[in-house]
Structures are given as C-alpha cells and as structure tokens.
Design goal:
five-stranded mixed barrel, alpha+beta, 288 residues, disordered C terminus, transmembrane helix, membrane, catalytic activity, single chain, three-stranded antiparallel β-sheet
Length: 288
C-alpha cells in the first residue's frame, strides 16, 4: 500500500482480491462527503465508488449490527420552510419558477404538539417544511441546465452483485461478555436517507419511516450518491446499524457500545463485495 496526501485527505492505494482500490475517509457530514467524493473522482480514474460505514436505524424490523444495502438514497434536509398561515393547498415561494415543489411531501410541526387536551385547538408557528429534490448538473449534460433528483438509485450491477452477500456471517459480540441478542445479518432494503443531522429523536424517526420507508439514517451517503449521479459513476453504499435513532428497547440506542462492532461488520461486507466485483470483472473479460 502507498499513500498520496492532498487537499486535506489521505488517498491510500492497495488491492483486494487483485482489484485495485483507493481508500479515503470522507469525514462527517454531507459537505465533507461531497467534497471528498468530488476530489476522488476529479483526481483519479475511478471505475466506481463503494461507500460504507455505520448508521442509525429507522426500520423497526432491523437490529444493531445488521448491514443494510439500500437500493435508493435521498438527502432529506433540503427544505422549503412554508410561512405561517399557509397550508398544503398554498403554492410555495418560487414554486411557480420550478425552484421548489410540493410533490414529495411535508412535515407539519403542529402534529407533534404535546401537553394539549383533546378538545384544544392548537397550531405551531413553525408551520410546515416541504422536502425538496436536489439540483443536479450532469457532467454529460448542457452546462447550467439543471435536473432534479430526490431518490438516487445505486448502480444496478453493483446492487445485483451485493445480493450474493445476504448469507454472509457477521460478528455479534464486542467481546466475550458483550454480545447482541439477535445475530446480525446482511439485508437489502428499499431506501436510506442522509442529512447533516445526528438523528436521536424517536418522533422524527417514526415520521421518516412512515413517510419514506427508509432504513439506515446517516449523514453522508446521499452526498456520495448525488456526486456519483452528477459524474455518471457507479455507486453503492453499505451501512451497518449502530443504534435505533431516538432509542427504543434496552439495546436499541447503545451506539457507544456497538459502534465498533457495526463498523467491523460494514468492513466485512465491503471486502466481500470487492471480491465479488473482482470475480465479476474477471469473468466479464472472457466474454466477447
């Protein structure tokens, strides 16, 4: 392995199963993940991006230590915050210009008011926030001609290959005395979501699960997905569950205890995926 330093990053070069790889840490949050991914793609000739790490969980059917493989990712913190007094039937500011939309849906803060009687009339000055798609300017498109994207799919070939990992055995113990009650598994899920927010709120966790059917909740993956979409580069993400966002059962929010286990499980899955990718590339080289 050798290392190149640049732009505040270390790019580590090596191989996994004869497949050349570059390893780089994104750092915390959407902006760091986006910058790092763009640096990677602008500096090197990259076949595809395999992103991995830990995440909170919004899906009640999953457990700590599970490694999720979402088919779609979205950034769920680009909002149009509607003025107080307006409602779902009222046009958003700049909606007429095509800058914003009501197609994805909204969060109504008044629905989460507490300590009121059932007969009380109540509202909330925070009103509503409407979820918005990102503006994307594809590298192969017309400069400054925007497209919009909310749910970004992972690469179809990568996702197909990842299904070979569903029976992979994962670690369930931090040490000889600290083990999970449920054996971790690799699982395909429909959607994951990202925002530069550490989500530790059960009400919002339940809302985004009911609204969007998301499973992993993290702070970076959607940024990587959006950059890869813009650059037309294959992408997939593996996220291991370290906690149930906002708490729940006795083990559900023990991120401090199980973060290392979740991180190790995500690495195990990524290494096996690269092996699958290497084998697929090898076989493809013999197909005329």
């Amino acid at each position: 392995m050798y290392v190149i330093l640049g732009e505040g990053r270390r790019f580590r070069f090596g191989t996994i199963a004869d497949k050349k790889v570059i390893l780089v840490m994104t750092g915390l949050s959407m902006i760091n993940a986006g910058i790092t991914t763009q640096l990677l793609l602008s500096t090197f000739d990259i076949e595809g991006v395999v992103h991995y790490g830990i995440a909170g969980n919004a899906n009640p059917s999953l457990n700590i230590g599970d490694v999720t493989i979402p088919q779609y990712w979205a950034h769920t913190a680009l909002w149009n915050w509607q003025r107080y007094g307006d409602g779902p039937e009222d046009e958003l500011a700049l909606e007429e210009n095509g800058d914003y939309t009501r197609e994805i849906g909204y969060l109504k803060f008044a629905n989460y008011t507490v300590n009121v009687s059932s007969s009380s009339s109540y509202d909330n000055l925070l009103n509503n926030v409407w979820y918005q798609p990102e503006e994307v300017f594809p590298v192969d498109g017309t400069p400054e001609e925007r497209e919009h994207a909310f749910w970004v799919p992972v690469d179809s070939l990568y996702f197909q290959l990842s299904q070979n990992l569903l029976a992979l055995e994962l670690e369930g113990c931090v040490n000889s005395t600290t083990c999970l009650t449920e054996t971790p598994k690799v699982v395909s899920v429909l959607r994951g979501t990202s925002a530069s927010i550490y989500l530790d709120n059960a009400a919002y966790r339940a809302f985004i699960y009911d609204k969007f059917q998301v499973s992993p909740v993290d702070m970076e993956s959607a940024a990587v997905a959006l950059i890869c979409l813009q650059q037309r580069v294959a992408f997939i993400a593996f996220r291991a569950i370290s906690d149930l966002a906002g708490g729940g059962s006795a083990q559900s929010n023990e991120a401090a205890t199980f973060t290392s286990l979740a991180a190790n499980n995500s690495v195990t899955v990524v290494v096996e995926f690269i092996k699958q990718l290497s084998a697929a590339s090898f076989h493809a080289s013999f197909v005329s």
